[in-house]
């Protein structure tokens, strides 16, 4: 047995390492050791690294082990590990890190970091109970507050994820920890404060686990000159990195909804049933309460004018299948409607601030000040969106029933991500099972989209799975062209029935459209029932996590899902033997962000379809394919019904990016 250095990755992950000594059936993986050495080298050399590690490599240990060794060797170092899905975050926090704490040669502290709004404020809870008659609208909310109060007396971490009952979010808004109304060390509950206890754990920990949303929220706050959420760190490890562009765009843009304004106004003052309720009834002036009514009317007029503008636009740029009151519409010019809202919000903020100065208790003063700041923030965001104040962003409107959302996002996140992350953090590790689109320059797409420095290394590690033995790929060039929607969907129904019967259910069917999924479910629901197969359809309203659990428990089940089921879902063993992909997962070209990015690429002399839309769809297809084989014992088939993967020249890009496995074309095996 080779000699192993005490602080090498092999000392933990290798054949004679600490894990092998603890687990009798442990199988060292060469790809895992190669990745661990590359991660260790990047941290030691203070450079960045991009790693595609196929399913089965064990990439979480491959970055956690060198990261822990790094912080143990350097007392000044801290590592942030960020994930996209809750499932991976729970795996790291509940399984991987506790196990590594049991095998590492020295102890280390790790902490899960949540946003402040996840924690209850004991002071605000006390105020809410004292003022519940003014603040709550009905008996249900009062009962919910009573449950929260009872839970708060027994909870250990004070986080809403610890709740074991259905939470009313209007109640939580009254009691959550909020920087805008925090007394800090002057608070009587400071020593018992769950949030500050969590902050203390975070400051002590050398390994921090976060999600991408919090990670980029922290970067956005630093960009605007605010104090960030996270303490200083010198290594960032971004797992599930194929989602980074969209998450970064979401947090580096603007968003304001009609519901946000209505919610804040109702919290401030409501005179339903001739009973005044809300924060302002506990010390606010009549003038401020009347201004709430003015703001509510102004918001109704403003958002109705937005909807009217939306309805007047040509249908191009909206989903043709959607009714007029649903869909997204890009806004190409500023000031599309009169701004009747922001000045009224600012007036309300001034009145609430004035009222706060006359209050006798600091607790109420800070609640009023926080509410005034919310009014000012909503006014600023609305004005910035309407005036299109943020340069190099795409602006759009989303309508969904009564919900109206005004949003913007950077067209190209690369310059911002490079400035805020790669230029400031010495070592950033970007990893996923799907980062390369294949070929000699397979990483170029992601490097450009994220602003990843060209001079830093990018490596691709194969999977430890034997795909030729474990998986079959079925292609159907004879299927109708998807542009003939009716004919294509009729043919899909036949194939879904055939292959669901072939594997006795145990099938995921992945769609790219909610409408297409609903049509297929409606057509096949009775047939599935007659054949003893349980249909779980995402549009039926069951939460995705529960759908997966029900799928695993069912002997014969077929799950219909859209985007969230293409990635981050882990079903091992015989429960899943078949993944049917109905269409190649191209983003709709009329989606505002996609359209704006494509225009920018074409304007710079590129070809947006081949430079952006095809690579993006290749990555998503790899994610969908990856749902099938999760362990060395899994077997099954992936069925791609879209004929373009075989009949179009660009289809080669999709096939080249997939693992090599047995291939069948129209049912005939091709060598």
Key features of this structure:
single chain, 671 residues, alpha/beta, Rossmann fold, Four Helix Bundle (Hemerythrin (Met), subunit A), 3 domains, 7-stranded parallel β-sheet, 26 helices, globular
Describe this structure in words.
The protein is α/β, with parallel strands linked by helices and 671 residues long. Helix content is 46%, strand content 14%. The protein has three domains: 209 residues, P-loop containing nucleotide triphosphate hydrolases (Rossmann fold, 3-Layer(aba) Sandwich), CATH 3.40.50.300; 157 residues, Up-down Bundle (Four Helix Bundle (Hemerythrin (Met), subunit A)); 204 residues, Rossmann fold. It has an eight-stranded mixed beta sheet with strand order 14-15-13-16-17-12-18-19, sandwiched between helices. A seven-stranded parallel beta sheet has the order 3-4-2-5-10-1-11, with helices on both faces. A four-stranded antiparallel beta sheet has the order 6-9-8-7. Helix 3 runs parallel beside helix 4, helix 4 packs across helix 5 and helix 15 packs antiparallel against helix 16. The longest helix is centred in the middle third of the chain and has 27 residues. The radius of gyration is 27 Å and the shape is globular. It starts with 9 loop residues before the first helix and ends with a strand. The N terminus is likely disordered.
